[in-house]
């Protein structure tokens, strides 16, 4: 048995496939689990209102395929941010958060990755940051009730593009149910921007990080960069994460219409497994 688990980001698989087909694809590519996406689209946000019968059927499908859904990427707050200057949007944001936590509880999801920004489509201000902190504290208390971890993704915006910045809010809220889920590509781009070191940044989160997104980037670009064509040193990122106790990893990449998408899943899995299996 391996000393770690390797998950697959749902968006690496064609979106039109059923849950069973997605879980089987993850299994065939040798992944341990799938990470569910709840993004800002109406289609994905509707999952938060999934009937109990569908939730039960999905749990059954996980058992039958042998591949669970163990993490959730909750990026729906980009459209409905916790720090919004609009009180109706903030209310919608908290509704999304509570429903996501309840869905995670029903499906056996352990970790919800939350976006590390106060607002996205509007200007960040002292007021938006204040509202963000207040709603973040309320969210952590809901998560505590259900025993579900909320963990910041380090983002592409300056509000929280480093682990250091995430640690500030972790210490401010001071909840055992609030942690950090760094994105390797985003912290690399931040290191280039600031002339700093992404490995030192990652180590700054020791004790607060449980998982890491293994994503490729190039300077100034954050999505859909093929592995091996960017500037992320996955060997050193994984070694650094491993040495601070991280044993849960997810490959974050996107299906972009390739007819060889299944082979892409296998190739990425093998690339990361080869690095992870060498860790001691």
Q: For the record, what is the CATH homologous superfamily label?
A: Divalent-metal-dependent TIM barrel enzymes
Helix content, binned percent: 40-55%
Helix count, DSSP H or I runs of 4 or more residues:
10
Shape: globular
Number of domains: 1
Number of strands: 8
Order of strands side by side in the largest beta sheet? 6-5-4-3-2-1-8-7
What is the straight-line distance between the termini?
Answer: 14 Å
The CATH class designation is Alpha Beta
Q: How is the quaternary structure best described?
A: single chain
Strand coverage percent: 5-15%
Please name the CATH architecture: Alpha-Beta Barrel
Low-pLDDT regions: none
- CATH-derived topology: TIM Barrel
Order of helices and strands: EHEHHEHEHEHEHHEHEH
Largest sheet: 8 strands, parallel
| Structural category | alpha/beta
Rg on CA atoms, Å = 18 Å
InterPro entries: L-Ru-5P_3-Epase, Sugar_Epim/Isomerase, Xyl_isomerase-like_sf, Xyl_isomerase-like_TIM-brl
Protein name: L-ribulose-5-phosphate 3-epimerase
GO molecular function: intramolecular oxidoreductase activity, interconverting aldoses and ketoses; L-ribulose-5-phosphate 3-epimerase activity
Domain Xylose isomerase-like TIM barrel: 23-251
């Amino acid at each position: 048995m391996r000393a770690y688990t390797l998950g697959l980001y749902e968006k690496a698989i064609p979106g039109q496939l059923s849950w069973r087909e997605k879980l089987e694809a993850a299994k065939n590519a040798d992944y341990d689990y799938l990470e569910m996406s709840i993004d800002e689209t109406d289609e994905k946000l509707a999952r938060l209102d999934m009937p109990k019968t569908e939730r039960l059927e999905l749990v059954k499908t996980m058992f039958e395929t042998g591949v669970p859904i163990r993490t959730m990427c909750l990026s729906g707050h980009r459209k409905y941010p916790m720090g919004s200057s609009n009180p109706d949007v903030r209310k919608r944001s908290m509704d999304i958060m509570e429903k996501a936590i309840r869905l995670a509880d029903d499906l056996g999801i352990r970790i919800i990755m939350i976006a590390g920004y106060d607002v996205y489509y509007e200007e960040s201000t002292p007021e938006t940051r204040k509202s963000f902190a207040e709603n973040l504290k309320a969210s952590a208390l809901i998560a505590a009730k259900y025993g579900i971890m909320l963990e910041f993704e380090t983002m592409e915006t300056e509000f929280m593009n480093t682990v250091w910045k995430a640690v500030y809010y972790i210490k401010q809220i001071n909840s055992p149910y609030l942690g950090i889920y760094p994105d390797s590509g985003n912290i690399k781009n931040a290191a280039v921007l600031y002339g700093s070191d992404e490995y030192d940044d990652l180590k700054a989160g020791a004790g607060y990080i449980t998982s890491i997104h293994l994503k490729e980037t190039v300077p100034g670009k954050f999505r859909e960069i093929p592995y091996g064509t960017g500037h992320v040193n996955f060997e050193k990122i994984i070694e650094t994460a491993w040495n601070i106790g991280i044993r849960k990893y997810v490959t974050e990449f996107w299906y972009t219409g390739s007819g060889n998408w299944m082979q892409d899943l296998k190739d990425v899995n093998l690339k990361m497994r080869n690095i992870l299996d060498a860790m001691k």
